[in-house]
What does this fold into?
Amino acid sequence: MRIDKWLWAARFFKTRSLATDAVEGGKIKLNGERPKPAKGVKVGDQLDVRAGPFTFSIRVLALSDRRGPAVEAVKLYIESAESQAARQALADELAQAASYVTSLLPPKLQGEIVSDYLFVASSQLGGDLFGYHWLDDNQLAMYLLDVCGHGL
It folds into this structure.
C-alpha cells in the first residue's frame, strides 16, 4: 500500500494531497529513509512523521486504504513511549512560551485612542513585537519590530 494513502487513512493528514506533500517535503521517514509517495508501507515498518512542530515515531500495525473515524485510525499504528513523552514535553514548552509572550504584551489602550490585538501562538521561533508609550499628554509613540524577518 502507498505510504501517502496510508498516512491519510491513519489520519495524520486531512487530505491525501497533504500526505503526498509531506512525503515529498521530507517530513516522513520510512525505516530511517526518505521515501517517495508511491513507496509501499507494510506491517512492522517504522515511520517518523513530522506534523507541524511535532514528530510521531510509530510502528505500523495494520494497513488500510479507507479513511475511517479516529478511533479506527489509531488501531493502524502504535506510537513509542519516547515519542509520546517528547511530544508532550514540546507541547508544554510551547505553552510556557506562549504564556511568557502574552505577559509581555502591552496593555490595551482605552479612551480617545483605542488599541486592540490578537495573540496567536506560533510553533516556530519568532521575534515580532510591538508596543506604545506616551511621550507626554499629547504624543503617543508606537513601535513594531520584526526581529527574525518573517514579517509582522
Q: What stands out?
A: The mean pLDDT is 90. Residues 81-104 form the longest helix (24 residues). The helical segments are 3-9, 16-24, 70-73, 81-104.
